[in-house]
C-alpha cells in the first residue's frame, strides 16, 4: 500500500509541476512579495494542524543547530517555509523539505527557494533509503495526538553521526518523559509565543545530538 501511495503522490507532484510551468498568466510571486522584508507572507492557504513557527522562534531553533555552510539539512514538516527562510542564509549544500499537504507544497513551490528539494510526502512513511541522511534537522512537527513525539523519534534515524536535530514539541509531562532523556537541551518557550499563529499551547524547544 505504501508503494502505491508514494507513486500516486509523486504523480500528483509531477502533474502539478507541469501545470505550474504552463500557467504563464499567473504571477508567480504575487502572494509572496513581502516575505523577504518581514519574514512572513500573505497567505490564502490553510491546512489542518498548521501553526507556523513564529519568526523569532524559527531563528532561535535554527541557531541551535550551529550550522556551517555546506551542510545537508532536512525540514520534515515544511508548512509555509518559516524554518526554510532561516536556513537559507546559512548556505546549505541542500535542504530537503517534506510537506504532506498538497496545498502547502504548492505554496512552497511558488517561493522558488534555491538548493531546496521539495517533496509532497508523509514524512512518517519515509526512510533513509528514500531521503538520505543529514547533518542537521530542523522541525516544527504537528502536535495532534502526540504526532510531535512520533515525528521527532522517526527523524533521528536520518541524522548522520555527529549531526543535530532541533525541534519544537508540546510541553506535557508525557512528552517530557519520552523526549527529555534523549535531549541535549530542553528550553521552555514563553507562554503566548504562538498566539499570533492561532494556538496558545505551551511548547518546548529541544535539541538531540546523534
Describe it for me?
This protein has 210 residues and is an alpha/beta fold. It has a single domain (52-209), classed as Vaccinia Virus protein VP39 (Rossmann fold), CATH 3.40.50. It has helices at 2-22, 35-38, 55-64, 82-87, 102-111, 128-131, 147-155, 173-179; strands spanning 72-75, 94-99, 116-120, 134-139, 159-170, 185-188, 203-209. Strand 1, helix 4 (82-87) and strand 2 (94-99) form a beta-alpha-beta unit.
**CATH C-level name:** Alpha Beta
Class by alpha and beta content: alpha/beta
Helix content: 25-40%
Q: Count of DSSP E strands?
A: 7
Biggest β-sheet: count, sense, barrel?
A: 7 strands, mixed
Number of helices: 8
Name of the CATH architecture: 3-Layer(aba) Sandwich
N-end to C-end Cα span = 31 Å
Mean pLDDT: 83
Shape: globular
Work out the strand percent: 15-25%
Number of domains: 1
The order of strands across the largest sheet is 3-2-1-4-5-7-6
Q: Tell me the radius of gyration.
A: 17 Å
Here the CATH topology equals Rossmann fold
CATH superfamily: Vaccinia Virus protein VP39
Encode the helix/strand succession as letters: HHHEHEHEHEHEHEE
pLDDT under 50 segments (min length 5)? 17-48
Keywords:
21% strand, seven-stranded mixed β-sheet, 7 strands, 8 helices, alpha/beta, globular, Rossmann fold, 210 residues
Question: What's this model, at a glance?
Answer:
Helices cover 34% and strands 21% of the residues.
Layout of helices and strands, plus pairs?
Layout lengths: L1 H21 L12 H4 L16 H10 L7 E4 L6 H6 L6 E6 L2 H10 L4 E5 L7 H4 L2 E6 L7 H9 L3 E12 L2 H7 L5 E4 L14 E7 L1
Parallel strand pairs: 1-2, 1-4, 2-3, 4-5
Antiparallel strand pairs: 5-7, 6-7
Amino acid at each position: 500500500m505504501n508503494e502505491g501511495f508514494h507513486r500516486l503522490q509523486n504523480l500528483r507532484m509531477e502533474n502539478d509541476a507541469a501545470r505550474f510551468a504552463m500557467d504563464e498568466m499567473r504571477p508567480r510571486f504575487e502572494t509572496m512579495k513581502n516575505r523577504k522584508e518581514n519574514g512572513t507572507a500573505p497567505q490564502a492557504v490553510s491546512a489542518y494542524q498548521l501553526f507556523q513557527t513564529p519568526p523569532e522562534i524559527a531563528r532561535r531553533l535554527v541557531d541551535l543547530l550551529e550550522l556551517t555552510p555546506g551542510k545537508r539539512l532536512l525540514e520534515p514538516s515544511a508548512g509555509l517555509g518559516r524554518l526554510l527562510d532561516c536556513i537559507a542564509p546559512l548556505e546549505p549544500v541542500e535542504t530537503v523539505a517534506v510537506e504532506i499537504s498538497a496545498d502547502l507544497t504548492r505554496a512552497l513551490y511558488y517561493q522558488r527557494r534555491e538548493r531546496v528539494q521539495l517533496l509532497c510526502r508523509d514524512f512518517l512513511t519515509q526512510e533513509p533509503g528514500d531521503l538520505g541522511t543529514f547533518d542537521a534537522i530542523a522541525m516544527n512537527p504537528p502536535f495532534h495526538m502526540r504526532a510531535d513525539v512520533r515525528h521527532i523519534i522517526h527523524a533521528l534515524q536520518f541524522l548522520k553521526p555527529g549531526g543535530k536535530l532541533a525541534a519544537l514539541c508540546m510541553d506535557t509531562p508525557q512528552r517530557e518523559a519520552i523526549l527529555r532523556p534523549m535531549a541535549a537541551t530542553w528550553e521552555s518557550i514563553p507562554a503566548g509565543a504562538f498566539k499570533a499563529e492561532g494556538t496558545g499551547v505551551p511548547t518546548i524547544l529541544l535539541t538531540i545530538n546523534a
